Structures are given as structure tokens and as C-alpha cells.
């Protein structure tokens, strides 16, 4: 693992809300807005941007937790900007705070954690569960 970052380092990532991101269960569309589920997926991806630079070829990141306060909707076609800041680095663990905005409006805040492990270790864990 490369130690490239410090607590307080920030990254930005953005995405435009699509029909695939709206709130739905099975085939039932609930609301035509950015779902909490899709927001969580994208928040995890935004936080992973640090891991992509930190992990070495024989390593991979694995999520450990995700919290979301979904505060306001985002409509299909709106651009969501994620601001991600490292709040803790401890050993092979990285924890980030994130804020998601549409323009100046905060639509969500939360935290996300990942650990960087060797691919061999991750495969071993998965195999032990079979």
C-alpha cells in the first residue's frame, strides 16, 4: 500500500443522475429522483478514488461501512458533485467524509470506510465462507 495521502486531503467526483439511478424496487418506480441506494453506490465510488491510487497491483480495496444522510432530492439530468475528504487513516484502513451537492444545495452527507488488503487475503476470506 502506498501512503500518498493524509487526513484532510480532498478529492472531487461528479455524475449526472440517469433513469437507472431513480428510486425503484423490482419493476416498480417509486420516485423519479436519485435513489438513496444509487447515491450510496456513487458515494462509495467517489471515496474509492483515494484507494485506486493507494493500492498496489497485488492489493484491492474492500468496503467496511457506509452511512448516508439523504437530505434533498436530485432530479434526472442534474449533476451531483461529490466532495470526499479523508477523516482517518489507520494502518490499512481509510475513512472518508463525503458531501454530495447539486449546485449549492447539499443533497447528502455521510462517511465511508475501506480497507486495503492483498488480493490473496481477500480470496482467502471469500473461500473460507464457502
Question: How would you characterize this protein structure?
Answer:
With about 130 residues, this protein is α+β, with helices and mostly antiparallel strands. The chain has one domain: Thiol Ester Dehydrase, Chain A. The protein is about 20% helix and about 50% strand. It contains two helices and seven strands, in the order βββαββββα. It has helices spanning about 35-55, 120-130, and strands at about 10-15, 20-25, 30-35, 60-70, 80-90, 95-100, 105-120. The strands form two sheets. A five-stranded antiparallel beta sheet has the order 1-5-6-7-4. It has a two-stranded antiparallel sheet with strand order 2-3. The protein is globular, with a radius of gyration of 16 Å. The chain starts with 9 loop residues before the first strand and ends with a helix.
Amino acid at each position: 500500500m502506498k501512503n500518498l495521502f493524509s487526513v484532510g486531503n480532498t478529492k472531487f467526483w461528479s455524475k449526472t443522475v440517469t433513469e437507472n439511478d431513480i428510486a425503484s424496487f423490482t419493476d416498480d418506480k417509486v420516485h423519479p429522483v436519485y435513489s438513496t441506494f444509487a447515491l450510496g453506490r456513487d458515494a462509495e465510488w467517489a471515496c474509492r478514488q483515494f484507494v485506486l491510487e493507494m493500492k498496489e497491483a497485488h492489493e484491492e480495496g474492500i468496503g467496511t461501512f457506509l452511512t448516508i444522510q439523504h437530505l434533498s432530492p436530485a432530479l434526472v439530468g442534474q449533476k451531483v458533485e461529490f466532495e470526499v475528504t479523508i477523516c482517518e487513516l489507520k494502518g490499512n484502513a481509510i475513512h472518508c467524509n463525503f458531501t454530495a451537492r447539486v449546485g449549492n444545495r447539499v443533497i447528502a452527507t455521510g462517511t465511508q470506510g475501506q480497507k486495503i488488503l492483498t488480493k490473496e487475503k481477500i480470496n482467502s476470506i471469500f473461500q473460507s465462507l464457502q
